[in-house]
Amino acid sequence: MTVKTKEKTLEIIVEEMVNVVENSKDEIFHISEEARSEYEQLSRELEDTKVKVIQYIEDGDKLEQRVAYSRQRLSEVSKYFDRYGEDEIREIYEGTHELQTRLAMLRKEESILRQRRDDLERRLLSLDHTIKRAEGLASKITVILTYLTDDFKQVNEMIEEAKEKQEFGLKIIEAQEEERKRISREIHDGPAQMLANILLRSELVDRTFREGSTTEALDEIKNVRKMVRSSLYEVRRIIYDLRPMALDDLGLIPTIKKYIATTAEYNNVKIEFTPIGSDERLNQKYEIAFFRLAQEAIQNAIKHAEASKIQVKLEINKRHLTMVIKDDGKGFNPNVKRDKSFGIIGMRERVEMFDGIMKLDSAPGKGTKIVIQVPYEVY
Ligand SMILES: Nc1ncnc2c1ncn2[C@@H]1O[C@H](COP(=O)(O)OP(=O)(O)OP(=O)(O)O)[C@@H](O)[C@H]1O
Ligand SMILES: [Mg+2]
């Protein structure tokens, strides 16, 4: 599966998951809303029931008093039954009986109401639990949704980044091949051709000398010497481009110094170099990196900026390696991406490999300034 399709599949999966989770959230919301409305309804019913229970208790108490009174009357009447008529006695008896029956019913209804009240209270408690659990669940689901929407986006960004790195890697390989081609052409057009020329000329010297014309032969030798010198310069330049041996032998500062001297002379441009702080040898990786960084920045200033002055500062202190490369040339817009340009991207990659930072400041007409800082412990 390619990175692109992987990314797409992942997107679809995440989208589906988001849908499912969102539906569940809606459902939970629904459940909690239903529970809430039932809770409200039952609360109202509970209030009513409580009021009724009190009412029943009060009514019952009153009735009880009346029953007590009525029974007292009845016992009085029964004691002195000779004083009362039969009808009167029956009436009191029946009245008492009716009151007693009503009281019993009232007490029965009161007990049913009490039971209902207790049931309602229990049900409300359990509904309260349900509501709280639904709320807890809803907030957990919100967290999941944030994970899926925000955090997964980051995963996608990481995949995107990995894809860019992969493409960049391929471009670097291409660029390396391009570079090999350029070097072989340079050797072919420069030193190789000059050596062929020198060979021809030296044969000419040989002939001239043998024909007796010493002065002409000496003149010709001067020419040959000039050509040897310039071939030597070319070969040295190419070697420098590939990898200056001085870097291993002498270290960073002398190599940059030498590189700058040759480059300034060859391109007829003023380049200032200011090393600050310690001048001890650094770890080889750092020496190579900083030489390449300086080389690329200087080459850019020469190739693109038409600068009249380039300044390079290198500071080595206890914690950092800092380099500033500044030119007074025509500047450029660093936000414009160039397809076939790897110099600046490569510089950035190198600096990041060492956990450093690189700031590029440039604008058309304003010159260019690059500041690089990399953490480095000098022991
Ligand atoms: N110091 C500078 N002054 C003006 N323009 C610059 C400078 N440095 C870079 N540029 C511009 O930025 C572009 C990108 O530079 P970069 O070094 O990345 O690539 P390049 O020099 O074109 O090619 P490469 O370095 O891969 O051989 C250049 O083509 C140039 O237009
Ligand atoms: Mg470049």
Mind explaining what this structure looks like?
- The protein has 379 residues and is of the alpha+beta class.
- It folds into two domains: 3-168, Orthogonal Bundle (Helix Hairpins); 246-375, 2-Layer Sandwich (Heat Shock Protein 90), CATH 3.30.565.10.
- The protein contains seven helices and five strands, in the order αααααβαββαββ.
- A five-stranded mixed β-sheet has the order 1-2-3-5-4, with helices on one face.
- Strand 1, helix 6 and strand 2 (309-316) form a beta-alpha-beta unit.
- The relative contact order is 0.06.
- Magnesium ion binds next to helix 6.
- Adenosine-5'-triphosphate (ATP) is lined by residues 300-301, 303-305, 327, 329-332, 338, 341-344, 368.
Briefly note the structural class of the backbone: alpha+beta
Highest-level CATH class of the largest domain: Mainly Alpha
**Regarding quaternary structure, how should these chains be classified?**
single chain
Number of domains: 2
* pLDDT < 50 runs, ≥5 residues: none
Which molecules other than protein and nucleic acid are bound? adenosine-5'-triphosphate, magnesium ion
If you compute it from the alpha carbons, what radius of gyration comes out, rounded to the nearest whole angstrom? 51 Å
CATH topology of the largest domain: Helix Hairpins
Total count of strands: 5
Could you say what the CATH architecture of the largest domain is?
Orthogonal Bundle
- Roughly what percent helix? over 70%
- Number of helical runs? 7
Proportion of strand residues: 5-15%
Largest sheet: 5 strands, mixed
Distance between the termini: 48 Å
Q: What is the molecular shape?
A: rod-shaped
List the secondary-structure elements in sequence, H or E: HHHHHEHEEHEE
* Mean pLDDT over the residues: 90
Protein name: Signal transduction histidine-protein kinase/phosphatase DegS
GO molecular function: ATP binding; phosphoprotein phosphatase activity; phosphorelay sensor kinase activity; protein dimerization activity
Coiled coil: 32-59, 103-165
Subcellular location: Cytoplasm
